[in-house]
Amino acid sequence: MRIILFGPPGSGKGTQAELLKDRLKLVHISTGDILREAVKLETPAGKKAEPFMNAGKLAPDELVNEMVADRFRRSDRPTDFMMDGYPRTLAQARFFDNVLRQQGQPLDAVIFLEVGNEECARRIIGRRVCPQCKRSYHIQDKPPHKPGVCDQDDAALIQRDDDKEETVRNRLKVYRETTIEIIPYYQERGLVRQVPGEGDIETIYKAIAKAIQ
């Protein structure tokens, strides 16, 4: 099975991706994680991407495309996978189609999680992360036992720069302006499955599982 998990920042893609990975045994490919790791390691690609990420902007298509293409050129490229956070523009979608065509791996479905802007903003702005164990919390939905401190290692929780309100608002604006054009592109091929992204996590997962049966 080869799917794209699609939706605005804060729509719950990461949470649902973990469930799909564990239960359907899909390889989870997150370009956000790839980019953040590159920035942390100060790779050439990471240095190019960092200013865009800090400003809440999308990294240039050619930069993201090349990182994804590299993943699918490797000898350990996945045959059953889930894309999370890519493609984000029409140009990326077309490029990815060419990559998959070269590998003989057509897409099976595009899952579109529908969540409103204000709910997305609330979810992201309230997110806190442990800098040591990387455990994620939310000040309202999933607070630590002790405010501001990780339950596992007592490290002070941080808010990522791209989770701050001004950046989040800009990320959502960029998404609505650029990414939304992908939906008609995939709809023409009958690949889009629209799933409500608000509510209980397990209910959302079941709706996704039903949509891709």
Written overview of the protein:
- The chain is globular, with a radius of gyration of 17 Å.
- The chain has helices at residues 13-24, 31-41, 44-54, 61-73, 90-103, 117-125, 165-178, 182-187, 201-211, and strands spanning 2-6, 27-30, 81-84, 109-114, 127-129, 136-138, 192-196.
- The chain has 9 helices and 7 strands, in the order βαβαααβαβαββααβα.
- It has one domain (2-116, 176-211): 3-Layer(aba) Sandwich (Rossmann fold).
- The model has no long low-confidence stretch (mean pLDDT 89).
- The chain has 213 residues and is α/β, with parallel strands linked by helices.
- It has a 5-stranded parallel sheet with strand order 2-3-1-4-7. Strands 5-6 form a two-stranded antiparallel sheet.
- 47% of the residues lie in helices and 14% in strands.
